[in-house]
Amino acid sequence: MVGDRNRYRGKVVLIALGPVTFDTLWETLEDLHARHHAAGLEILQVAPFNRAIGHPPEPEQRKAMEAIVSEPRWPWPVLWNQKGHDDLAARWGHHRIPAWILIGRHGRIIGVSGVPLSVSIPRELARSAPAEP
After folding, report:
1. Which of 30, 69, 123, 125 is 20 to 30 Å from the Cα of 102, by its Cα?
2. Three-state SS for 107?
3. Model pTM?
């Protein structure tokens, strides 16, 4: 289950904020998943309602997103944020979409967007997982 935090305890988690139709984002995530998932990288994608374009309305945008991610090629969970880009910016302090948030094995944020994932992900994966509580 995506919402179960214990599922991610001791793992390196990449939260990708951005629409599921942004090809460059998807291709980057696909590459990162292929290279690092077996070593413990978990990817969560958060697709926000795009209020800026004003149409289609939120329920239709969500339905289109669900149709896209129902394809078997989507190996990571995609969550929907009906509040949109502004909510993501307020929560994470990041106004540009797409954006990345890398969380290390100890549950702390390693970097947001500008962090070099090709260096940071392998470094975090090499760290030992924290002891069980």
Report:
1. 69
2. coil
3. 0.76
